[in-house]
């Protein structure tokens, strides 16, 4: 994807806040991400209201679907005329589920597989019985997603460079982005916007460093300025 790589995660249950953010951020981001917090509150009508405030922004609908293939395919078809550009499923749902998701999605939309959440570290994976740490698990799930026909993956900035080497055409959607000095919160595998972009991220997903800033538009503008000043 070309243009500004920053997608702001608009994580709120408040429709009016989301609409204000969309309008204020539109000139400074490439897209908006609406996820479960917003979707469970407002559904498709809310998505349409928000995106009407940012008509040029792309929509990343982050539903992180994870179920049997028939259910995931039905859930995607039930999105009807929600005009999303990117949709998430969990790569851990397996190959048949990812194939069914891709087949059910509109042809122009990218379906990407969430690998290892950026809020997890190697100790968390070990506690779940996953061997080899996050790098190895992301590698396994990225290969599965690629071989199952998905358009790309969601992973942390730490894994992007290695995975891009195996999948040049893949779309790498990367949360766990923190401008230098900002609060990490519940994220564990993070890098700065420039580091993530230079590692090969196609989309930089940034939420609270923008939305919790005193002036979200200024925060988004500052991130865009740093990225263009330090262009690859
Ligand atoms: O799929 C995602 O977007 C996602 C995957 C992941 O591994 N980690 C992750 O943080 N996200 C999302 O990216 C956003 C990050 O928000 P901040 O931590 O506020 O920047 C949230 O909306 C998360 O739901």
From TrEMBL:
Enzyme class: lyase
A Pfam family this chain is assigned to: OMPdecase
CDD domains: OMP_decarboxylase_like (cd04725)
Keyword Lyase: yes
Keywords, in A-Z order: Decarboxylase, Lyase, Pyrimidine biosynthesis
Keyword flag DNA-binding: no
Family per similarity comment: Belongs to the OMP decarboxylase family. Type 1 subfamily.
Role of this protein: Catalyzes the decarboxylation of orotidine 5'-monophosphate (OMP) to uridine 5'-monophosphate (UMP).
Protein name: Orotidine 5'-phosphate decarboxylase
Gene (UniProt): pyrF
């Amino acid at each position: 994807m070309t243009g500004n790589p920053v997608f702001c995660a608009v994580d709120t249950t408040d429709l009016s806040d989301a609409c204000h953010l969309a309008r204020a951020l539109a000139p400074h981001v490439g897209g908006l991400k609406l996820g479960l917090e917003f979707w469970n509150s407002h559904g498709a009508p809310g998505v349409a209201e928000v995106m009407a405030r940012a008509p040029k922004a792309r929509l990343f609908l982050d539903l992180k679907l994870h179920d049997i293939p028939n259910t995931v395919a039905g859930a995607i078809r039930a999105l009807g005329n929600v005009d999303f550009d990117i949709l998430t499923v969990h790569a851990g749902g397996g190959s048949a589920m990812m194939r069914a998701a891709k087949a059910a999605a509109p042809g122009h939309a990218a379906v990407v597989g969430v690998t290892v959440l950026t809020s997890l570290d190697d100790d968390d994976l070990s506690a779940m019985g996953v061997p080899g740490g996050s790098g190895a698990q992301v590698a396994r799930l990225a290969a599965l997603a690629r071989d199952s026909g998905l358009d790309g993956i969601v992973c942390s900035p730490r894994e992007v460079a290695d995975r891009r080497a195996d999948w040049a055409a893949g779309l790498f959607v990367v949360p766990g982005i923190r401008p230098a000095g900002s609060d990490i919160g519940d994220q564990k595998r993070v890098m700065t916007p420039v580091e993530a972009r230079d590692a090969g991220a196609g989309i930089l997903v940034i939420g609270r460093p923008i939305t919790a800033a005193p002036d979200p538009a200024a925060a988004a503008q500052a991130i865009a300025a740093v990225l263009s000043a330090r262009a690859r």
